[in-house]
Structure formats: structure tokens, C-alpha cells
Amino acid sequence: MNRFRTLLLSLVVLAALSSANAVEIADVTIADSLKQSAAGPELILNGAGLRTLYMVKIYVAGLYLTEKKGNTADVIALKGPKRIQMSLIRGVSVEQLLDALNEGLKANLSAAEQAEFAGQIEQLNTTFSTLKKTKKGDVVALDFIPGAGTRVSVNGQSTSPPIAGDEFYGALLKIWLGDKPVQDKLKAALLGQS
Q1: pLDDT of residue 17
Q2: Average pLDDT by consecutive 10-residue portion of the chain (194 residues)?
Q3: Are strands 56-65 and 82-88 parallel, antiparallel or unpaired?
Q4: Which letter does DSSP use for residue 137 in this model?
Q5: In the chain, how many H helices and how many E strands?
């Protein structure tokens, strides 16, 4: 009987430890830390939340930084690697994903900023247009790699060379964290405010 209790207690402790290392939202488990590469620094989960559209669950987003930040300006100004990760709850077409990204950029960038980043936005559109339809369970990551730019990957596989320009990643983050974010509740969650 003592062996059974010891085993049961061990399982409870392991379950508690593993749940302390992850966040679960809408049946999607989000790691509390990750690395973009084996040689890179560890990024910690700043916040995570659910993206819905007309009460339909679309994806769970997670924002990873080298240190926690509670407002948009501090997140964008933070030096070092970053990641915004979307864990898809349902399959969406590449066109739907692109439309949402482009709408978010238009809503949060001035006309001058849109002109400044026109080349990078076009490259982002080209990168996404090479993808096939996404499916439930896919993980789309937008990584900022200092000195290289923005890397898009799906399920850990890079889709193209990085999009150059450090400032462009800040523009992308405004889709979720800008003055007109894709969803206010998601912005608050990503900033660790909920």
C-alpha cells in the first residue's frame, strides 16, 4: 500500500510541476518558455490569449520575450529576440490569414509607415502565399531575430528567408498590441494584464 501511495504522490507532484510550466487555453497548451534556436536565449511567455471572431475560436496566441513587459511601447522597444505564436484551433485559408494580417497592419500603421514598410509587407504576403492551407493544430510563429529580421515558420519549419528590417517586427506586433488591436481582450492577455 505504501508503494501505491508513493507512486500516486509522485504522479500528483509531476502533474503539478508540468502544469506550472505551461498554460492551457481552449485545450491548447502553451509552453511558458521556448528557444528560437538551440544557441539562442530562452524566451519567456509574456502572456497568452484566445482569438475569437463572432464567438468562433480561431487561435491561441502567445507572446514570448526575453523579459516580461506590460505595455506595447516597452514590448516594441525591448532589445533581443521575440516571438508571436498562433496555435490554430481551426483550419483557416492562407487568404484569410493574410487578410487578417494586412487589415491589422492597415488599422495600426499610418500611411507613412505603410509606405515605409511596403517592401516588407509585400515580402510577408509573398511568404504567406507560398503556404498551403493551414489546419487545426498548426503552429504559425513570427520570430524576430536581431540582425536578420522577421522569420515566419509553420510547425517549426521556416517558410522563407527572414524579412529584413528590425523596425518591421514592431509594426507586426501592433496587429495584436497596437491602438486598434485585432481584439482588445487578446491584447490585454498578451501583455499579461488578464
Answers
A1: 36
A2: 42 38 90 89 97 94 97 96 96 89 97 97 92 88 95 90 94 98 97 90
A3: antiparallel
A4: T
A5: 7, 9
The set of cell numbers assigned to 40 is 539562442
**CA–CA separation, 70 and 26 (whole Å):** 23
Three cell numbers written together for 113:
509607415
59: how many CB neighbours lie within 10 A of its CB? 27
Query: Which of 92, 65, 61 is CA-nearest to residue 77?
Result: 65
Reference 63, options 132, 127, 135, 142; nearest CA is 142
In this structure, the chain runs to a length of 194
Ordered by where they begin, the domains of the chain are 25-190 (3.50.70.10)
Angstrom distance (rounded) from CA 65 to CA 80: 8
Q: Which phi-psi region, left, alpha or beta, contains residue 191 (left: φ > 0; alpha: ψ -120 to 50)?
A: alpha
User: Which DSSP string corresponds to 5-74?
Assistant: HHHHHHHHHHHHHHHHTEEEETTEEEESEEESSTTSPEEEEEEEEEEEETTEEEEEEEEEESS--SSHHH
Q: What is the pLDDT of residue 14?
A: 38
Contact 180, 57 (CB under 8 A): no
Q: Who's near 139: CB < 8 A, 6+ residues apart?
A: 85, 86, 87, 88, 154, 155, 156
Q: pTM for the full model?
A: 0.86
